[in-house]
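Supplementary Methods S3. Input chains for the assembly prediction are listed below.
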Amino acid sequence: MDPAVDRKVSGIVAATFTPFNPDGHINPAVIGPYVDYLTKKQGVTNVFVNGTTGESVSLSMEERKVLAEVWCREGKGKLDQLIVHVGCMSLKDTQELARHAEEIGADGIAVISPSFFKPSTADALREYLKQVAKVAPTLPFYYYHIPAMTGINVNARDVVEGIEQLIPSFRGLKFSGTDLMDFGQCVRLSQPNWSLLYGVDEQLLAGLAMGAEGAVGSTFNYMGCHTKQLITAFKAGDLSQCRSTVICCVLLLFTGFNLGVNKQLMIEVSGLSLGPPRLPLLQCPADNSQAIAKKYHSLFPDP
Ligand SMILES: CC(=O)N[C@H](C=O)[C@@H](O)[C@H](O)[C@H](O)CO
Ligand SMILES: CC(=O)C(=O)O
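Predicted structure tokens for the full assembly:
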């Protein structure tokens, strides 16, 4: 088989949280136990480091490099695929992180659009992505579409159509949008060596129905096992089983869910010392986090 096709990402990919000390510095010492928790307790062997969940845009370049390095080192021999998100506001910084990811042996890079100065057309964004990919040509390249966070009004289908001509290392898309028409068009345009990864966890069933081959998400940090069951049920055509997992996910995330709550829930479920998020995000108040952990345990009882 073509090695690129063989290395396709499928199944679930956990978008990792960044561990901080209470004083606000990154705490890479937690990454070793974090890898063991994901692989042994959640059955998750793919990670997406320094993404939205990892608060990458609130991290310094140096912090992002250290985190990527430690994830690569600790994940060696334990993780199947480690994708590093390298997108920054500046092309130069994004290129620097892309080169760095290649040097440290990551399995792929993903890039979000810059969002302060926004690309006004799909072609502008494609040109930007091309300039990033060309400095790390050996690494599988994924476009990370997340319009609710970037505010970019460019359809993913317009970005990816024919992009393999511009970016030979292009290998797919992480689609964290709710526009399933747009996602469906990406599926239609997909090439055999692309991975189409869906990124709105509470709508994963719809993403799978439209043709997603895998998913990247924050909730797989603590719902990895349940989400794997959902994917198995989907493949077996058991839609009622799929719906019951999805409904639990929707119920859990329905009220007042944000990254601070999400991180605290991971801390409660996993016991890992991930610390508070970084400002401007706020730590979840204790009464709120206990209530959500209780809800989690009632919706997803231990087997
Ligand atoms: C905005 C955001 O962080 N999106 C994540 C991935 O892209 C998702 O995994 C969500 O955290 C998840 O779907 C919960 O809403
Ligand atoms: C969820 C996700 O993919 C991210 O944190 O970037």
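The pocket of pyruvic acid (ligand 2) is lined by residues 15, 48, 51-53, 199, 216-218 (CB under 6 Å). The chain has 14 helices and eight strands.
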